[in-house]
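We close this part of the discussion by returning to an individual protein. Part of our work consisted of pairing the sequence of a single chain with a tokenised description of its backbone. No coordinates are needed to read the tokens, only the vocabulary itself. The amino acid sequence and the backbone structure tokens for this protein are reproduced below:
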Amino acid sequence: MVQRMRITKVDEHINLVDLEPAGIKNFIASYVLTGKNTAIVEAGPVSTVQNLLFSLKELNVKPEEVAYVAVSHIHLDHGGAVGILVKHLPKAKLIVHKRGTPHAANPENLWTQSRKALGRLAQMYGKPEPVPKERIIAATDGMIFDMGNNVKLKVIETLGHASHHLAYYETLSQGIFPGDAAGIYLNKFDVVVPTTPSPYRLDIALASLKKLVNLKSRFLYYSHFGKAYNSTEKLRAYVKQLKLWEEIAKQGIEKGENLEAISKRLIESDTALQKAREHIKNHPILSKTVLAQSVEGVMKYVEKMRVQTS
């Protein structure tokens, strides 16, 4: 793979841009797909707009050549930058799940909720700006967007992490842009860790993963972070990992354990967490999300299911 600055060529027609929020490398990626026209998959947060625009210039992509900005969901680290980005890309349209369109057009409530959930992290990502309604495409499962030269994106509805989540299948490379549906890939360790913040729906997430497995893809292009091989194997392993988290959360809740105790038992049981434990512990973002927000999301799901079945 050819690499320059924060750009890595991951396929003949796909370049990864490391957005580096607050200088943090290998955490949030945008992907630039080039056919006759260009598409960007994942806009990233507001705070990294200039990094992305500079990278487009480095790739000799003219602003008017960008036809689409496709986001997996409207959380600040994936779609926060779109409102500002489209000001610089005169022909680009936003591809987003139909449930995400109101928040893209008017992100005030999204910003309020994000500040409550993320605290300082929301400030680091930055406040999103509205996207003009006429530039928003409400995407549904199975839609195909053609960039020319056989570069196409197929929309795959993948709910669970969020109620408005999409993945994209790229037909030429036979690769999937899974957003957060397939977890967080820590490429340094070649492990995946769950991203399951509340309100998380494990049952729906597992159904989404089954859809991705059935695509029999060659690669995964993770938003967090990078290109991964053995795509189907990784997706199936993530299914098993999520079920492990669910089982440990069930056991912990039945014993009256708190978040800290259940997190500790997960570290003892999940080999991926064991391999990357120090990295997660010292990471400015993962240290706040993986063993707190994600574990809490699974715990709340388990508790909700217990109430519904009791």
